[in-house]
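help with this record:
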Amino acid sequence: MTEKKSSRKPSRQTSTVPARRLFVLDTNVLMHDPTALFRFQEHDIYLPMVVLEELDRGKKGVSEVARNVRQVNRFLDDLIQAHKDQPLHEGIELDNNPVFSNGSSAHGRLFFQTDVLDAAPLPQLPGNSVDNTILGVALHLCSQQPQREVILVSKDINLRIKANIVGLVAEDYFNDQVLEDADLLPVGFHELPEGFWEEHGKDVDSWQDHGHTFYRIKGPLAGEWAPGAFLYQDQEHGFQAIVRRSRNEHATVETIRDYTEEKHAVWGISARNREQNFALNLLMDPDIDLVTLLGAAGTGKTLLTLAAGLAQTLDEQLYKEIIMTRVTVPVGEDIGFLPGTEEEKMAPWMGALMDNLEVLTQPSNNGKWARNSTDEFLLSKIKIKSLNFMRGRTFLNRYLIIDEAQNLTPKQMKTLITRAGPGTKVVCIGNIAQIDTPYLTETSSGLTYVVDRFRRWEHSGHITLRRGERSRLADFASDNL
């Protein structure tokens, strides 16, 4: 048994291994990312026949997976039609591929299983499942082409474990990940080092415009600051500012409003820590079109967002109404179909909205009737929309809140954010440590995708809230459970 395992395992050390590797793709890779066919640069791709069978079974329906499968089928059909004069057993050049934003393209070949493979089943692979068939095909390719490295690519952890057991190199599909480590996400603020003003004071210009104080700073640190990021320094009087522009070691920053003071409260809510103060400055700034807030449970993401939305909708009348949506992914077992209208069906998913409205209307001491009237009036300005009916919509002068955004895919986030018309502000809030959607991780979540892609845009801002302010019990549970 040991000899059989070693004979089937591709050698990484031999000098005869060519530069082009052969990647055998599992079905779930194509279901996850339809453009995976064009993500392997100069290397070759092999699709077993059983993968095409699984794609055929998965093309029906309106789900995200079904749409991805249909897109894969269109890609394959376009490739075959573009090379219909070329024998399939020789492979198809992957030159007819979409252009990606990073300019990358594929230069390898796509191979299909055109022959019946004589791959004897291994005793440690009982049954005749699809996964075992893919393993058999990959092992046959290893023995048929010993001079090249054959790698199985799959999102299925169990399949990768079985591949390693039988001596086959297996890897996860990482191209859909925005970052290799979620810790690389920006927090949205920078602490100025000691002696910063002594070193940069000579090159600082300051002026005032419409009651706002601006500084133009020059230096190596200024080139590292992204627009929308905050700067602070804990001194006797303190310094807090937001970066408006940053280019070539030159940055223009503007001092911010201190929302920790009671006189600057937003709808009765004051910031309780530095990060909340930064978040309120982003939420109340009409020049910021997109705000992303990350944070653990109890850090005040929803409360701050809703308070800022009500203040700008009812008091300042910058927006016509507040629209709130979220993906309906249950934490436990699904409770089934819900009766009623769209808003009545979404009501159980919007418990966070009602909880925060209760906090915002708590100071009312005019009795139960007045309290109910206030809640009814506020709810008339807040529309609860389902994610399923967002495609094709255009929101004008709206305050759009995307709750639990960590459960959305990058494609769903793109669909929602592109609904924004003139005068609309989009706020994405979530906690990437609480992802309930299958096949999504901290590094492939749509929320991570948006934070990374908008980090250098002057009309966006991001803050990671660190301190919990819900209760001492919630804070301890968040840190220790």
